[in-house]
Design brief:
Elements lengths: L1 H15 L8 H10 L21 H4 E4 L3 H8 L2 E6 L5 H12 L3 E9 L3 E4 L2 E4 L3 E8 L13
């Protein structure tokens, strides 16, 4: 029985040993490049949370991305899809609250839905409201139309 015990002992020893990883030098170099450099606690930036924006995100649906809106954004005018029930004053307050900019002017357009067909069935897309927001001179909303 001692021979079997020795064989069992070898298998148990192999099971206890951690398996050697098959990392090559190349893999280790890649891992070194991927790892982020250590940052001290004093160097970390404090995250400033936005105050409660209230109904602002209900008013502003999204940024309207088109060629025309891209051209206008260079001159400080931005185009947003807004709630159908909103007015100019609410749009102005929402933009100022969310993006921390000063709004000079707001123009609003009601856009009628288009008729669409799929075979015999005709339908209509929903109506929506578009707001052209002009900012005061020298101000920009970063991240909306940059690099497009």
């Amino acid at each position: 029985m001692s021979i079997l015990d020795r064989i069992k002992g070898k298998k148990e020893d192999e099971a206890k040993k951690p398996k050697a990883s098959k990392k090559t030098q190349k893999d280790e170099n890649v891992l070194d490049m991927v790892q982020e450099p250590a940052v001290e606690a004093s160097e970390k930036k404090q995250v400033v949370l936005k105050e409660d924006t209230g109904r602002a995100h209900d008013i502003l649906r999204n940024y309207h991305l088109s060629e025309k809106s891209n051209l206008l954004s260079a001159s400080g005018r931005y185009v947003f899809r807004v709630s159908k029930s909103t007015n100019k004053l609410e749009v102005k307050k929402a933009i100022e609250k969310v993006y921390d900019v000063h709004v000079a002017d707001v123009n609003i357009m009601n856009i009628k839905g288009k008729t669409r067909r799929s075979g015999k069935i005709a339908g209509k897309t929903s109506n929506w409201k578009k707001a052209y927001v002009t900012l005061k001179a020298g101000e920009k909303i970063s991240g909306l139309a940059e690099g497009i």
